[in-house]
Amino acid sequence: MSVKNKIFRWGGFIIVAALAAFIYFKFYFVFGEGVKAGELNQIVYKGWVWKTYEGRLIQTGFKGAKGGGTIQSNEFDFSVVDKAVADSLMHCSGKQVELHYKEYNGMLPWRGMQHYIVDEIVSVSIPDASESIPVIVPDE
């Protein structure tokens, strides 16, 4: 085997190994995981080619918008891969939920449109009406 063939063979091997490592770390490596809590706003089944479950959780509190001047609610957008978890979440709209999620560096179209993939419902509770904050309107 000539030196030129050895260089091409090793070069090809290195390129394939680097590409495989990139794909693994970009799409399959779990970058982080945790639990988010809040009111489940929506869970929908949508998509053009690959139908996926997409949801939104509204967390308590507010955050300042980038650029300043306005206040936005904390929203947690996520995807659900497991149909059983998605079906359970379909019955939890408007309830307080705690969701376990995994964060990936990249999105795959068949896994969902978000970096955050919910894989477990930790708890579900009905919001207590007595905990609501009264709105006080000043007299004019």
Describe the protein's topology.
Elements: H1 3-28, E1 30-46, E2 52-64, E3 71-80, H2 83-90, E4 96-104, E5 116-125
Parallel strand pairs: 3-5
Antiparallel strand pairs: 1-2, 1-4, 2-3, 4-5
What does this entry show, briefly?
It is built from 2 helices and 5 strands. It is an alpha+beta fold and 140 residues long.
Biggest beta sheet summary: 5 strands, mixed, barrel
The CATH topology: OB fold (Dihydrolipoamide Acetyltransferase, E2P)
Mean pLDDT: 86
- Give the helix/strand class: alpha+beta
Helix content estimate: 10-25%
> What is the CA–CA distance across the termini?
93 Å
| CATH architecture descriptor text | Beta Barrel
- SSE ordering: HEEEHEE
Number of strands: 5
Principal-axis shape equals elongated
- Look at the structure and give the CATH class: Mainly Beta
Strand order of the largest sheet: 1-2-3-5-4
Strand percentage, roughly? 35-45%
Supply Rg.
22 Å
Description:
The structure is a single chain. The chain has 140 residues and is α+β, with helices and mostly antiparallel strands. It has one domain: OB fold (Dihydrolipoamide Acetyltransferase, E2P) (Beta Barrel), CATH 2.40.50. The chain contains two helices and five strands, in the order H-E-E-E-H-E-E. It has helices at residues 3-28, 83-90, and strands at 30-46, 52-64, 71-80, 96-104, 116-125. The chain has a five-stranded mixed barrel with strand order 1-2-3-5-4. The radius of gyration is 22 Å and the shape is elongated. 14% of the residues are buried. The model has no long low-confidence stretch (mean pLDDT 86).
